[in-house]
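FAQ: What does the model actually see?

It sees only this:
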Amino acid sequence: MGASIEGEVDEIIARHRACVLRGRAFFVAWHGTLTLAFQAWSEDFARLKRALNEIDAMQAEAFGSKWPKISLGCLKSDDAGGRLTMEEYEALRDVCDGFRGRAERDARVRASELKVVVFGSRCCERRVSVKRVKLRPEECGEEASRESVALVESVLSEGRRDEEYLNRVNAPGHRACHYEQGSGVTLVADALEGNTSDVSDLTALLLEFRSAVEKILPGRFRWFRDDSLHVTVRGLVN
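And it is asked to produce this:
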């Protein structure tokens, strides 16, 4: 990322307010990636993201960062163990649905700063460098972006219990080797940093969710480390 773009990114972040992301639901995304989706970007964060999109020479935003989420883990491989039967998928969906109330109550990420991360793995477990950029210290913007709410609900509604969506869950790629490799620069809000009650509640929730998944599908998922869990605001360099 060039120095001029880096300076523009820093300036944009510094003039926007922090964001409180509120949990919506656990969700089985395409390729079988397990995620925790949030209700929406705040209106102020939506403006921040639009400003980043307007930077000259900035790469196009990938769809995955348009809806706020934490990627929690992925299927381990593309072999038989990396594909779910309809029965397994429905059991996994039942686990996700069973945690929906807890997700809405206990999942909070308070982003008071963002990090520009040069990564050596797509799951951000290997971080070559990290630069912290503070958001404005005023009270966090709570108003949800209506456009963001609509997008999150559209994504969640796609996760049907039918063969068409199961084919997307079982589509090849985005298994463990994909997330463990790759390099680039991304802008993130780390999810489990600090010792606040929000972090404690979210840590406990994720532990319970992983345990519930392992109970029905033992050893099938590669879980990302707690210290790597993040909400991607936007990829900067692929």
